[in-house]
Amino acid sequence: MTSKIEQEIPEVVPTHVAIIMDGNGRWAKSRGLPRLAGHKAGTENLRRIIEASVEFGIKYLTIYAFSTENWGRPEDEVSGLMKLFDDVFNRELAELHKQGARLIHIGRLEGVSQSMKDKIKNGEEITKENKKLILNVAFNYGSRDEILNAVQNIMKKGIEAEDVTQEMIGENLFTSHSPDPDLIIRTSGEKRISNFLLWQSAYSEWYFPEILWPDFGREALLEAIHEFARRERRFGKVEASR
Ligand code: FPP
Questions:
Q1: Which CATH number does the domain housing residue 111 bear?
Q2: pLDDT tens digit string along 95-107?
Q3: Of the residues 45, 70, 149, 172, which is catalytic?
Q4: How far apart (Å, rounded) are the C-alpha atoms in residues 55 and 63?
């Protein structure tokens, strides 16, 4: 059982939390439902997590919605997911705006349908002045592809090899508007990075709860933040003793 102190928001809250929302398929399977029902439950949970992030004072939330590799899933699952994303945009954008969240897409728009591109652009435009939470949605995203794209951009500017810096690479990533993530969560007990924020996660704390994504609600996020606060406190002691 969580102690009373664990039910409160800790003093140290990560500025940037990134999440690999894993386990939708297993959640559905354990209930004898089709995989898409798991993805649907996953999108419903996303609303809870966005709300909780605003409540806890998290400033940046990055979610891995669809990777460049996910196109290789069975056709009906891919088309079902696209339909789900479409529905979510139609249904949730107003709520997101009301929460004061700003939507930013990270990933490639090439290969994405025109209607989805329009939805993404529209969502970014409507929410662009919001300051409470930056919601980075990694869609058609792969981190190696992102780093490659950054290197290509730098080379196109004609910069000499010896003048390329780490900062320059960071500035050319899709996440250039966000600080590096402090805490990265992958739900469902899987412990892999899966081509997510490879450059940005150099110093991130990783957290791997066993809970499947549709069940990873407010309390679970709060627990993750407490775990982060404990790790941060240890780090603080090392710093202070230097
Ligand atoms: C991983 O579970 C989940 C995905 C590939 C899709 C994640 C997408 C959502 C939760 C939808 C929310 C996002 C937006 C932007 C609306 P899995 O299918 O790999 O699960 P499994 O490992 O149990 O099979």
A1: 3.40.1180.10
A2: 999 999 999 999 9
A3: 70
A4: 17
